[in-house]
Specification:
single chain, mainly alpha, Serine Threonine Protein Phosphatase 5, Tetratricopeptide repeat
Length: about 100
């Protein structure tokens, strides 16, 4: 019984994975746009950091990561900003402001 279930799962997985479309040129253009946005946000975060606007610097650094989560430079930039702000003290890491609901819940 277990063999049939595992065989069924493997068969379904194989049929689904073989039917996946290949990445198109449109998707690669989308990735290039995200990569360019990521680099722009890294530059903006560095400018904000040089002006000692730490809040804006962290926002831009987070946006860079959102645009391209696999970009190593984006993560290094974000980590450097956090270390600069906190001096390495993990208890001082800034958190985004949470919106409070108007109905009191």
């Amino acid at each position: 019984m277990k063999k049939w279930i595992s065989l069924s799962v493997v068969t379904i997985f194989m049929s689904l994975s073989l039917g996946l479309p290949k990445p198109s040129a449109c998707q690669s253009e989308y990735y290039k746009m995200n990569e360019a946005k990521c680099e722009k946000y890294i530059e903006l975060s560095q400018e904000a950091l040089s002006e000692n606007d730490y809040y804006e610097a962290t926002l831009y650094a987070k946006r860079a990561i959102q645009e391209d989560p696999w970009n190593r430079n984006a993560w290094i930039n974000y980590n450097n900003i956090i270390v600069k702000i906190t001096g390495g003290n993990i208890n001082l890491i800034p958190h985004t402001k949470k919106l409070t609901e108007k109905n009191g819940n």
